[in-house]
Amino acid sequence: MPVVIKLKQIVISILILANWSAANAQNARLVIDPQAHAGIVNDLVFTSNGKFLISVSDDKTIRIWDVEKGMLDRTLRTFSGDGSEGAIYALALSPDSRFLAVGGYFQMNEIRIINLERDTEVVVLKGHSNVITSLDFSNDGLKLASSDATGIIRLWDIGFSDGVITGTSEKVLEGHTAQVYDISFAPNSKQLVSASYDGSLKLWDLTEVEKPISMTMHIDKVQSCSFSSDGKWIVSGGNKGKVILWDKRGAFSKFLASIGEPVRDIAVLGDELIISGSKGYRFSLSSSVSNGQLAVPFSATSAVAISSTNLVALAGGAQGTIIVYDLKSNEPLQLFKSRTQKIARIGISNDTTVVFSNSNEEFTSGINLSSLSYIWETTKLEGIATENHEENGYKLLPIDKYTLSTGFSGKVEMNPRIDGRLRSFTIIDDETIAVGGDYSLKLYSREGEFKTELKGFNSAITSIASINNRIVGLSQDKTIRIWNTSTSELLATIFLTSKNDWICWTPQGYYQASSGGEKYIGWQIDEEANKPSKFYKSSVFASKFHAPEMVKQTIGTGSFEIAKEKVKEGKAIFASSNVKLPNKEASAKPSKIVSAAPVIEWITPELQTFELNQPKITIKAKVKSASKIKLVKILINGRPSSNSRGVVIPKSVGEFDILVEQELVLSNEINEVRIFVANQEAKMVSEKRVINLANAGARGQGRSLDIINYMDRPDLYILSIGISDYVLPEYDLNYADDDAGSITEVFEKIGTKVYKNINSTKLLNSEADKQAILDAFDNLTHKVQAKDMVLIFIASHGINKEGKFFILPHDADLIQKPEVVVSWKDITQTLSELPSNVIVMIDACRSGQLGVNLTKFGANNTEALRSASSDENGLVLMAASTGSESALETPQWGHGAFTLSILEGIEKGKADIKPDGTIYLRELDFYVSERTIELTNDVQHPTTQKPSTISRLSIVNLNK
Q: Is the model's pLDDT at 22 over the cut of 50?
């Protein structure tokens, strides 16, 4: 259910904002994707089997969660207008879970029905004159009810024609004098109950034309209502905290509960009643007895849903966190939350490092805008400017929530509608102050006269700071923006995550990011109302927009146009020689590049989830491209299909169009199939097709020999490389060889519980010369099958030379024999062709005893990790350190900190966080990261990256 305050604002603002134009449909815009909701969750629903949870939010997204795996399955987008346009307030799921209806603040106040089996077809229902507040399907799936902020309820007849859903308006229900907040069908589909801000409920008999029964025991706004599962009762919740039970004829029965706070939402299943308030409250519907409370990690809930499998989901908080409980154990099962880093205030130093803190205490970290690198230590920074309220005899002082005194005779008056409340303010110099509000950031003279407005953000400015003609502003969505105060030009935006990944981009789309930061922004193209929006991760267009020097120069010069000329003329001082020049088309019109991405249309399988009784299937898809197609790969669970590697560009159906047709032999019980396509502008993967191998009735009973037994245990292949003793003593390390040996031993021991055969190769010290390393990687390509697992462990030195990353083998000599290095690109290429899952653990940024010949090379691993873990290459990477950090080793540990953390996590089972006997990649990542930071006193920060095409990955099973 939508939040009360938000809807009030929407009802007003819908009258003053300009209508969205269809001409904007092909305009690509950059949007943030924190891999979860970034705004209030307004409604929730479980699928009929309880396996998936669907949520909608102020952030304009539909998120579908895999409850068992505890992860985001996919995201759907419908419309992303300016400000609140596009916010989704209501959803309803058809009884068979095939169709999802959503509504909210859309440009035509329409309802959109999405086919979840394809995620493509949308039916649009028009008729409401204001924002949609609630939706509900009837139990027979033949009717849809909708309500809006004017109090109107509409009934729609839902039909099917040639497998396509249709909707026609049946009748309009009028009677409420204020907005309707919730509606609910009776199980027999013949009655409908509605709850309104006019303080009443109304019970509608859908078989008659008589006036509804008015139910008026609440003394304030009624925010929620629901029929019981058997249809005998109606439950309602009000703003004063009263929960009332009514009979099916609308007669008052009793006060069921009083929680002393507004009831945001209610959910009923059998005798179980869940009330959504500041937390979840459990009550017995029949006895009114409290069955306890469900604690939540936020101050107030906004929505609740209950599943047929006795799960309950509660959403709340400004960032849209969702917690899922198992009602049988009353224990939390999953937590879905934004990966946004919590930031309370910001500052900027003389060397243009933006610093931030999650409290009002000292700054903890920062982003250096000159080098575009993450800064873990801020105590040595000089001249940090923060929000400054007093200087040179005048003081800024808030008079009330809309008025700021400038300290002289002047004052700044905020317009409640245009600016919102006063949220932040600072002195820039003797002549200028900056004032941030809910909706604006403006510059004024010290007498309070308006100078200019800084634009380019979507939420309240909560902290600001200024230095050297630059002003930085922290938005409520936790993005940080940098403007030129002289010209008011927005220069760049920064987004940071709780795992310290980050991305910084210009308004034109150029960006630099940490190794895992690219996935947090993307390009969205809004289509017509009957089509879902297109969304492309920023990495799809990396060849066009990943241009760090453009970002640096834009911030440094204070102008994108000047930066563009500097880079083109070669006048910039570059950190490396492989600088990417601005693409003329990209800088002129990013939408032209984004719209040139290949379009992949599935033919077979047609449906998103498909069940198969035997392991062979021929897939078909049509690829349309605006430019020549360079590469096609078929991926199964993120890895190249073993019988389709090196797919030739298939049958041509047009100059730049192809038909992909390939027989696949599946070896997994669950197979997520995608098609990777690269053209001149983009590299992208298709939507997935999930092919489940059904339990073949007579496994082994007359089956042909070419049918794979997909329940066979996999083999484990371990390649462990550890080099402590180099030909040149100045390169020597202490424990790299011990690390490699110990990792092998642990996986050999634990792996016998999971894997059929364990094939391990150790290359230690003199065994690990360049040729031996290359041979070992090549050997894997002749043995590994799709069902297997490959583990690579590398402990050595690594260098970054002219933007390319290399591993130093035992026989390395960078001065006399610079060619004796192992190219990370070559390693990635070899491993990317393996059909199995591949995990690479790399500790190749050792501090050790760095000699003069080695320290002149950088060791930044960012681009190496980014490339290897891309959707194209599909490797899972666990790296001992981030960026240019060194990895630590000491005699006290007898290992590197990273390796010690892995050994503890697996051998001692400490990484089994849940615990359920299985250590998943996410659990190992969490334990290794936290433990390494603890061991090194926050000096070393491991990072784990995986492609989006690989979901939950189990590392070891401790119980088998």
A: no
State the pLDDT confidence band at 952, using cuts at 50, 70 and 90.
Answer: confident
178-206 pLDDT per residue, tens: 999 999 999 999 999 999 999 999 999 99
CB-neighbour burial class of residue 449 (10 A; exposed 0-12, middle 13-18, buried 19+): exposed
Note the pLDDT of residue 885: 81
How do beta strands 789-795 and 837-843 pair? parallel
Please say if the pLDDT value at position 583 is more than 90.
no
Give the three-class secondary structure for 94.
coil
Distant-in-sequence contacts of 546-549, Cβ < 8 A, 24+ apart:
546/510, 546/511, 546/512, 546/513, 546/518, 546/580, 547/510, 547/511, 547/512, 547/580, 547/581, 547/582, 548/372, 548/512, 548/580, 549/574, 549/575, 549/579, 549/580
Contact partners, residue 727, CB within 8 Å, separation at least 6: 810, 811, 812, 813
Residues 6+ apart with CB under 8 A from 25: 525, 526, 527, 528
Separation between Cα atoms, residue 693 and residue 787, nearest integer Å? 14
CB atoms within 10 A of CB 819: 8
Is the CB of residue 481 less than 8 Å from the CB of residue 464?
A: no
Phi first, then psi: give them for residue 780, nearest 5 degrees: -65, -35
How many beta carbons lie within 10 A of that of residue 601, not counting itself? 12
Q: Which residue in this structure is represented by tokens 């060889």?
A: 737
Residue type, 362: E
Quickly tell me which residue has 């509504």 as its tokens. Answer: 103
Give the separation between CA 695 and CA 716, rounded to whole angstroms: 25
Tell me the pTM.
0.90
List pLDDT tens digits, range 802-834: 888 999 999 999 999 999 999 999 999 999 999
Query: pLDDT tens digits, residue range 424-465?
Result: 999 999 899 999 999 999 999 999 999 999 999 888 999 999
Q: State the pLDDT at residue 163.
A: 67
pLDDT in tens, 147-159: 999 999 999 999 9
Give me Rg for the CA atoms of the chain.
Answer: 30
**Domain residue spans of the chain:** 1-14+40-174, 345-534+541-584, 599-693, 716-957
Retrieve residue 471's tokens.
């002003």
Say yes or no to pLDDT of 7 above 60. no
Give the SS3 label for residue 867. Answer: helix
Given a contact cutoff of 8 angstroms between Cβ atoms, the answer to whether 364 and 354 are in contact is no
Cis preceding-peptide flag for 915 (omega within 30 of 0) = yes
Which token pair is 664? 């696949």
Nearest to 302 by CA among 7, 36, 34, 535: 7
Q: Report how far residue 265's alpha carbon sits from residue 262's, in angstroms, rounded to the nearest whole number.
A: 9
**Class assignment of domain 599-693?**
mainly beta
Non-local (6+) Cβ contacts of 285 within 8 A are: 228, 233, 235, 245, 256, 268, 270, 271, 272, 273
CATH fold of the domain at 1-14+40-174:
Methylamine Dehydrogenase; Chain H (2.130.10)
Other C-beta atoms lying within 10 Å of the C-beta of residue 460 = 20
Q: Which residues contact 223 (CB under 8 A, 6 or more apart)?
A: 1, 4, 181, 182, 195, 237, 238, 239, 262, 263, 264, 265
Question: In a 10 Å sphere around its CB, with 0-12 CB exposed, 13-18 middle and 19+ buried, how is residue 675 labelled?
Answer: buried
**Residue pair 403/413 in contact by the 8 Å Cβ criterion:** yes
* Chain centroid to CA 206: 42
CA distance 827 to 832: 8
Query: 159 — phi, psi (to 5°)?
Result: -135, 180
Contact 371, 455 (CB under 8 A): no
Q: Is 48 helix (H, G, I), strand (E, B) or coil?
A: coil
User: Is the CA virtual torsion 730, 734, 735, 741 positive or negative?
Assistant: positive
CATH class assigned to 716-957: alpha beta
User: Are 942 and 928 contacting, i.e. CB atoms less than 8 angstroms apart?
Assistant: yes
